[in-house]
Amino acid sequence: MNRAPFIAVEGPIGAGKTTLASMLSEELGFPMINEIVEDNPYLDKFYDNIEEWSFQLEMFFLCHRYKQLEDTDRDYLKQGQPVLSDYHIYKNVIFAERTLHGQKLEKYKQIYHLLTHDLPKPNVIVYIKASLPTLLQRIEKRGRPFEKNIEHQYLERLIADYDTAIRQLQEEDPDISVLTIDGDTEDFVLNKTDYERIARQVKELIK
Length: 207
Known about the structure:
- The chain is α/β, with parallel strands linked by helices.
- The protein has helices at residues 17-28, 43-48, 50-75, 91-99, 102-116, 132-142, 152-172, 192-205, and strands spanning 6-10, 32-33, 83-85, 124-129, 177-182.
- α4 (91-99) packs across α7.
- The chain starts with 5 loop residues before the first strand and ends with a helix.
- Belongs to the DCK/DGK family.
């Protein structure tokens, strides 16, 4: 690996990204870049009316993540310090392509490419792949009020979108390492053996 490891944990809503990222951050001793979700002022409105509030929501997330990664590059990666994040900046495109259409989507993509073309990208992705029943169970368990109205069809499309996106990222950058976790069968929270296996695999990837 030619530069400091930059690990991103990714997966659909409810996959357990932040939980696993926090565990790996503590295990590896890497600073964690934690996505802020609840502070987005458009979330409640978005889940009540996706069409009306999608552009505002996506722009808020994009600008916030841009600032986080800009700071991460300056404060950590350029200093040779490995970092770990509970998201990949490309998730902005995954969600925008699902919620935006026509001119709004084109405008968004133009802004996205302008902002992110020189941002640091993860060289390791830990991808938590999970089915709809697993996502629904975890979403209900964490009990975020604004997630109560998420449509099942929306989640199903996100599952497929993530599979496509991970393949695209690998095709665009052959040097990127992807570790896929089966979120339906591997319980990294309650099963110590499952977690230790994941942590061991991550350590091998960043050697």
